Amino acid sequence: MRLSTKEIVVKSLKNGTVVPGFNIPYLPMMEPVVRALRDTNSFGLIMVARLEWIKFESGSLKAVRDEYLRCRDENHTRLHLDHVPVIDEDDLPVDYDVVIREAIELGYESVMIDGSRLDLEGNIKATAEVVELAAAAGIPVEAELGAVMGHEAGPLPPYEELFASGKGFTSPDDAKRFMNESGADWLSVAIGNIHGAISAAKKDQKKIEARLNIERLREIRDRTAVPLVLHGGTGIKKKYIMESFENGIAKINVATAIRQPYERNVGASVKAGQDAVYEAMLAIINDELEIADSARKLI
Description:
By secondary structure, this protein is an alpha/beta fold. The chain has helices at residues 5-15, 30-39, 50-54, 61-71, 96-106, 120-137, 159-165, 172-182, 214-224, 238-245, 256-265, 270-288, 294-298; strands at residues 19-23, 44-48, 77-85, 111-114, 141-145, 186-189, 228-230, 249-254. The radius of gyration is 17 Å and the shape is globular.
């Protein structure tokens, strides 16, 4: 029997393993990502976020879906719609419901609504609307609470200052209320993680080496009892990553670690870019996340 994405992520939480999601800002990246998952008998989500067809070259929801249908391996992959913000990284409103309806019609098997730039009540309301849409299609919804920074146009405050202050970190009490009232299936949390920069001036820079507040993560896990998601997975020290899997993180997003190798090498040829993605994937699967053979446990 074919397991749904929701069932797989719940199984990941129960097993103390993790489902990685790999962002595809350039369509040729998809084939080596799927191939690496297959070659290591691992499972992962193929993802695209709205900003990746607005600010990169993934084209559109349909273009990504079509490429996925060409490359997919259902023993190793499912298709997920990543960040669709209510207010985007440029502080502009987004017709998020239109985007999410299109993804559902195209056959995306899980979706993410990001209302984290709204107040708590606004985030709950927008998320609940999307949950109702997705429920009709029988697919799960990921939401975000707290501020996972990095995509904004302006400079970030010093990382150590951010971490020490806990600015933007997810509140465990708010998380409990949010999940109870929104009906979301998974929750993306802010516990020290940050996104990779996407501006043309900064997108090739090395990410800040982040760390995680594991105690805060445990508090959120205990109050919500749902699969939690770690965005901005690239650049976090491995010890924190592995500890997060033991404390509620059931899905982790990876973008910069495979995007930058592609961008550095595609000037030589598309194949060179794809080869670089494949090698980066093997390092992520085997060494950084230690999830080789995870398909055996999850599918």
